[in-house]
Amino acid sequence: MDIDHIKRMYTEANNLIYDAGILSRNLDQKSDAASFLKILGFEILLKCTLLINNQKPKKNHKYYKLWSGLPVNVQSKILQYTKSRMHDINDFSNLEELLNNYQFIFEKVRYFYEFYEGYTLDEQHELGKFWKDIGAPLDEADVRYYPDELECLIFGISEYIKEMAF
After folding, report:
1. pLDDT tens digits for 72-96?
2. Is this model's pTM higher than 0.85 or not?
3. Cα 96 to Cα 98: distance, rounded to the nearest angstrom
4. Which long-range contacts (CB under 8 A, 24 or more apart) does 108-115 make?
5. Looking at the domain 3-102+147-165, which fold is it?
6. How is the chain split into domains, by residue range?
7. Rounded CA separation 59/74 (Å)
8. CB within 8 A of 130, min separation 6: which ones?
């Protein structure tokens, strides 16, 4: 285990997450940059956790596959920390769907102009208007960020890393 590299990754991830926090407090945001930075920080923490467990993470954004590469006891430990973060956000029973959602955001939504490629600007606007008109149901949203769940996962992984590497 290369402890210096692990600490470097941990620091980089936390810097991205910190910067995401600064951006998210700005009321004059023009993009979802804060969310992307936070997801990227999460990815680095997840890969750092794999390194702690003597596994070389793949250079991709397949978060559920990365998670699945962790030993079951490590997953359980992280989820214990995760569930302690916010008591009302503690259902991680469909972690595969949640992690695949973050992968979708990072791979497909970070270039928002590509997300609606093939639609005119008017069609894009009408899709958004229609969604709002039907009450903006989360299960009908094209993009779901699940920020509380992400915060809890980041907390859980961070606590595990601190326990194992610091």
Report:
1. 999 999 999 999 998 887 778 899 9
2. yes
3. 5
4. 109/32, 109/143, 110/32, 110/36, 112/31, 112/32, 115/142, 115/143
5. Four Helix Bundle (Hemerythrin (Met), subunit A) (1.20.120)
6. 3-102+147-165
7. 21
8. none
